[in-house]
Structures are given as structure tokens and as C-alpha cells.
Amino acid sequence: MSVTKRCINFGEFFKTAYDAATAGSYADNFKELSKNEDREGMIKALIDVPYIRNVKIVESYRGKDDIKAAELYEKSRGTIAKDGILHEDTNRCSILTETLFTASVTSRLFLNALLDCAQYWYNSKAFVKCLKYCECMLALPDNLYDKTTESMNDFLERRKACIQLEQECSKNLKILSSQDRRSRKKCNGNVSVCSRNSSLLITRTPAAPTVAGKQHPVLKNCSDAVTLQYDEKRGRHLVANKNIRAGTVLIVESPFAYCTNKEALDRNCLHCHATLTSNDSVKIPCHFCQTVSFCSEKCRKEAWQTYHQYECFIFDAFNGNDSEQTERHTSHLLLAYRMIISGFLSSNIEQINKNTGGSEIPCLNDNFLHHITPINERSNDTETMCSVYGDPRNYRAILNLETNCTKIEPSINLVRAVEAIFLAKCFTFVLSKMDVVCLKETFISLAVAVLHYLQAINCNAYEIVENIYDKKTHVWEPRNVGGAIYPSVSLVNHSCYPNVVRHSYPSGIVVVRTLRFVGKGTEILDCYGSHWFAEGRLSRREYLWKKYCFLCACEACTHNWQYPSPETMNIKCRVCSEVIAVIALNDKNAQTIPSKQCPKCTEKIDMNKIKSQLKQSVEKRLYAISKMYEGHYEQALPRLLEHIQFIEKFFAAPNMETIKTQQCIIQCYNAFGCTSQ
To answer: Do 609 and 637 meet the contact criterion of CB atoms below 8 Å apart?
Structure first.
């Protein structure tokens, strides 16, 4: 007789499940199903494995601990110094924050810690921080504290205190804002030499730009400067339907689903990924777990409504992946899980909109099952493709993403299938806590969809990054925060010499800009791995083959570009792009150079004029770099774009000026996007 086993994390589940699935006839049967891309068959084969069938998911999260919270709160009250005077502990702020995360939201400890946090920052004249804690207090619903008269009185008393603090903070911020305006006016706008009150300085929340020109009539996340095409060799891809200048915003897209890496949970907001280490940031806790942090009450509320209530009580289960055999990022499990949630909520959107009370739970209805059913045939008709990718919430776009199911080893598909079953068990467990029943047939459909998601994530997930400034090198270095799925961005193919670059903005929004001039009819190309000048062709191709199952045949790989000499540049004909002559970058010889004639199209080239213009254009790059060192990236960028336009017009790739300029342009965009201290 089989015995039901309980599982609390993925690592615990995976090892036993994988070993059981690779034993006996299961492995041979799975190989055949994998080769035939029979996802339903793969899932059905695995759920018949006794261990997998019988294992049950249980709650796995760090819940509140009022005993520990009480100890922390007492510690936060300060110590008596030798002189007998009460002094605040230097770590009081961090201890209060820890108390806030540890105490139950319905307890007096939570209310005390929340009010103390607000009061602490008000006394420190950090009014922005104080307001964020006041907002948190004022958003608490009355029904959390109406169990007893004493509890309600405690709540009302502390809320009244926060209302008073909120009013005082608003007054002080208005005064400081007025002083700041007068100070800047007095200094004629030269803020760098003006003293500014640190309590007023607010970390910039970067706003994502809009697409250049008009919005594409069907591809809502794209500019009308691009169009969607298909051919057998390149599959679905984006092409410029007009000449596009360097620096043009082509795509601005919110993720279909996104997640946060384990190592970023403590330093970044779970919802918008804003840094929690800036001068004006605070850490707002989830009402039920201690694991995640938010930058504001607004982010906490939005996260709970859109996904966190379906993952909170099993959140630590995703972090139990300590098996090297899977070779997977823990964040990919969470990303796939949130893709389930996105479909689940999207299929119930009408019910959710009608439910103003917020008490009803969406159901596993036929609409949801239709959403998650993988389609077997992919249309290559351009009009049909545009309709699929035009709606950013369209599940068909997700199910059309490349999976390479038949190209990868059956053992890898087995890993994905085991992961899929685990995630499906997690989701149905959470729904069971909400009294939503999941039948076996529904579970199979769910697991099949998750298997598709996991395969697609491996080929189509993009990093969400924040940029860290290095004061010594004056360089913004990207640091991964999480991962996301973007249906429109996934249409962009790879090149080791890309003509676009991606940058992250709050809430996982990605912005795709051109790095150089893109002519009409030219394919829009991103870089999935290392650039050609950063790594050799063999290692680049090996990485792309293993991860994406294609042999790169981009311009850099086809011609096996080597890291170019900084001494020379090849002048090309403006008409036919034929290389005409070579000039030295550091040539200080002032003698005149005879004009050249293109041997292919007979176009005449004034060599002296180009050499003189190159010198002037390089000065623009050097001036831009000086502005970047000063932190004035918005002043540097136009000069860099002018310079790259000139280089692309007269000189053949590859060349060092293009490399240097593109890296500077990327640095400017790094500074405009998500940043951290």
C-alpha cells in the first residue's frame, strides 16, 4: 500500500522524483514521448510514478513570530548609558524594521513598530520615509482590529498619530521644496554648487520612455518603424520598414510575467524591483510572510492582488533547489509559476472586475483551461501573427514561443516535466486552501501548460537588471534582479553584433533602443550572449548552440571578426558600401591625401574632408565622456548619437570607434534605467 508523503520544497521533491522517474520502464517510455513532443504523454507517464503521485505539498514560508517580535521591540527601546541618560540604539531603525517584519499584522506589536518607524524618521527629518510608513498604517483595514474594544482603540489611537505625522511631513516638505527652488534659482540652476537638504532628496524613479513615432497599429508594444515577418530560416522576426536613427525607442513592453531572484529579495522591492538601499527607501513587509519586501504600501497591495496571495504560503518552496542535476535557476521556477497565475487571473478577469468586495476566489473554469491548452499548429501568416502578438496578455503568444522540445535531450525534458508537476501541485495546493477543487484532468492540463512554460523560459526569458555605479571606473555595471517573459521582445533574433540594446525599468518594463543606424529592410537584432569583441567565435557559438539550439551565422561569426586594431579604420563608399581606403586614427601627418574613387560604382571620395570630419567627430565622443564622468548623461547622449551616425555612414564595421561609442551609449541608457547604490 502506498503512503502519502509530504513535501515542503523543490529540492526535497526533485531528487527522489527524478531518481524514481529514471528507473525501469519509465525512462524508456519518456524518451519516446520527448522525441514526439508529446507533453501530455510525458506528464501522464510521470504522474503514474508512485512517489510523484502520492507526494503532497504543504505550507513552506517564514510566518510571523510574535515572541521574537516582542524581544526585538524591547531591544529597540534603547539602552541606559553610564551617564544615566536614555540613548537610542544606533541600530534602532534596523531593529524596528525587523520587528515590523516579524510581528503579526493584527498584533499591537505591529502597530507599535509601524508608528515608531514613522516617528523615528520624522524626528530624523527624513519626511519622505515617514510618509511611507504613515501610508502603510493608514491603509490597514479596520476589520483586522475589531475583535475587541481594546484592539480597536489601539488601532485608532495609532492611526490618529500617523495622520498627524502625515500632515506635519507634508507641511515640512512644502517648506523644503520652496527653499530648494529659491536655492536653485539663486545659483542659476547650478545645483552642484548649492547645498540641498538631505531630507528632501528623493531617489529618482525612472519613467520608461514611449516608442518613437507612432504606435504600431497591431503590435501595441512596438513602434510603427518595425514590422513582423516570417521565413523558414529566421522564423518570426522584426524588420525595419523605414530608415531608423541611432537611439530610437522601438519597443516598450511590460512583462507577461516576471519574478525576483532569491539574492535580490532583501535588497529590492518584490513588485517594482526598486532598490531598498537608497537614502529615502523603506522596507514594507508582507502581512503574512517575512521573506519578501516592498518599497511602498502601493506595491505591497498590487503584488498581493496580482500574484503574491497565490505564492505567499509556499514561497520558500521555490528556494529549495539545491540539486546540481537540474542546472536551473530557482527564479525560473517562480517565473513559470507566475505565468500560471497570469493565465488564471486573465481567464477570470470579468469575475474579478465584478467582485468589488474582493472576497470571491477566481475558479479553474473552462476559459482558464482553454487559455493554458498548448496549440499544436503555428500560423506563419503575417496578419494572424500580428493579431497574436498584438495583445500583450494573449496566451497564444506565450504558447507560440520557441521551446526546442524535440531538439534538447530527453533527460532535460524530464527535468522540466518533474518541475512542471511540482509547480502544478503547488498551485493546486494554494487553490485548495481557498476551497477551489482541482480534478485530475484539470491537473494534467495545468502541468502540460507549465511544462510548455518551462521549456519556453529557457529559450525566451530575459534578465531584469539594475545598474550599480562604480566610482573608481565611472562605469554602470548591470546586476541581475530577476527574470521576465516579453512576447514582443522575444520576436527579436540574435546577432553577436546587435543593432539594438535592452534596458530595464521599474516593474519589469523593458525598453529596446537602436544602437546605430538601421536601414529600411534590415532585421532588428539583439544579443543573447557575449558580443563578438568580448569573446571568441567558438565559445560564442558553443553557448548559443547549447542554450538556444542554433548555430550562429551573424555577420561577426560568418566573417570571424577579430578584436580590431585601434590604429586604423576602413573608409567605405556611401553608395555601395565597398571598402575604398584605410586611414590611421592616430595619424598626425597634416599632408593632404588624394581623393579616391570607388572601384565598384565610381563614386568619388574626398579623403581629406572625411579625415577632418573624423577628428571633429571623435572630439564629440571625448566631450561626451567628460560629461558622463560628471554625471550629465543626458548631455552626453546626443553627442554620442551624432558621432555613431557619422562613423556608421563613412566607415566599415568592425572598428574601434563604433565599439567605444556604443559602449558609451549603453552606459547612458544604464544611467536612465533602474539603478541602485
So the answer is: no
Quick check: 607 and 597 in contact, CB under 8 A?
no
Per DSSP, the three-state class of 581 is strand
What are the grid coordinates assigned to 116, written together? 515608531
Residue 261: pLDDT band by 50, 70, 90 thresholds?
very high
d(CA 432, CA 429): 5
Could you tell me what percentage of the chain is helix, strand and coil, using 3-state DSSP and rounding each to the nearest 5?
A: 50, 15, 40
Average pLDDT over the chain, rounded to whole? 85
Q: How far apart are CA 470 and CA 51, in angstroms?
A: 50
CB 321 within 8 A of CB 11: yes
143-202 pLDDT, tens digit per residue, is: 999 889 999 999 999 999 999 999 999 999 998 877 766 665 555 444 333 333 333 334
CB within 8 A of 226, min separation 6: which ones?
216, 219, 238, 239, 240, 241, 250, 251, 524
CA 391/CA 487 separation, integer angstroms: 9
pLDDT score of 18 more than 70: yes
- Amino acid present at 578: E
Task: Give the phi and the psi of residue 223 in degrees, each rounded to 5.
Answer: -75, 155
Q: Are 97 and 59 in contact (CB under 8 A)?
A: no
Could you tell me which of 447, 457, 449 has the C-alpha nearest to residue 425? 447
The partner residues of 228 in beta bridges, in order of sequence, read 238
Check residue 185 and give its pLDDT: 58
Query: Three cell numbers at 121?
Result: 524618521
What is the CA 4 to chain-centroid distance, rounded? Answer: 38
Nearest residue to 557 via CA among 520, 525, 524, 596: 525
Contact 667, 628 (CB under 8 A): yes
Looking at 25-34, 425-434, 524-533, which range is the least confident one? 25-34
CA distance 262 to 246: 36
**Which H, E and C letters describe 247-313, residue by residue?**
CCEEEEECCCEEEECHHHCCCECCCCCCECCCCCCCCEECCCCCCCEECCHHHHHHHHHHCHHHCHH
Length of the chain: 677
User: Which residues, in sequence order, are CB contacts of 393 under 8 Å at separation 6+?
Assistant: 256, 342, 346
Say what the pTM is: 0.89
Omega before 654 within 30 of 0, i.e. cis: yes
- Cα dist from 42 to 248, 411, 425, whole Å: 45, 12, 16
Write b or e for each residue in 542-573: b if 16 or more Cβ atoms lie within 10 A of its Cβ, otherwise e. Answer: eebeeebebebebebbeeebeebeeeebbbbb
H or E element at residue 136: helix 127-138
Cell of 104: 503579526
Contacts of 64 (CB under 8 A, 6+ apart): 102, 103, 104, 105, 288, 290
Positive or negative torsion for Cα 323, 327, 332, 337: negative
The residue among 166, 110, 113 whose CA lies nearest residue 138 is: 166
What is the grid cell recorded at 615? Answer: 577628428
Three-state DSSP string of 507-538 = HHCEEEEECCCECCCCECEECCCCCCCCCCHH
Please state, as a whole number, how many other Cβ atoms lie within 10 Å of the Cβ of residue 629.
10
